[in-house]
Structures are given as structure tokens and as C-alpha cells.
Design a protein that fits this description.
The protein is mainly β. It has one domain. The protein is 0% helix and 51% strand. It contains no helices and six strands. The model has no long low-confidence stretch (mean pLDDT 76).
């Protein structure tokens, strides 16, 4: 780590938001921005693969599709 930040948008820390990756595992949303998010899962996700995510925030479901980057 310790390199120059390459993200185009500021990331915002998120607390208490959970969801799941379709067919795989529960996830925890770590931070989010306009063009990306950091998530934590118990199972490994394949890099360069798209996944359907379902995120629940205070009882409000949000469905999203995302591409996993390293």
C-alpha cells in the first residue's frame, strides 16, 4: 500500500450495511463512492467477473451489479 490514491471519487466509510452476493455469501459494505465500493465477503470473488449484489440498508433493499477489481 502507501501508493498514490488512484480513485476518481472520495470514498465514504459505511457502518452497519450488509447484504449478499447472489448464490455466494453474505457481504459487509466497507466504503462507497460514486464509482466504486469496498466490500468484505467470507467467500472469494473472482477478479474481472460481474456479480449481482443485494444490499439492505435499514430495511430498504438495493440491488446492484458490479465488476470485481483487485
Amino acid at each position: 500500500m502507501g501508493g498514490r490514491e488512484r480513485r476518481g471519487y472520495k470514498r465514504y466509510t459505511v457502518d452497519g450495511v450488509r447484504g449478499n452476493v447472489r448464490f455466494l455469501a453474505d457481504l459487509k459494505l466497507i466504503n462507497i463512492s460514486v464509482d466504486g465500493a469496498a466490500i468484505e465477503t467470507k467467500k472469494r470473488l473472482d477478479v474481472n467477473r460481474e456479480y449481482n449484489f443485494k444490499i439492505d440498508y435499514k430495511g430498504n433493499p438495493l440491488r446492484a451489479r458490479g465488476l470485481v477489481h483487485s
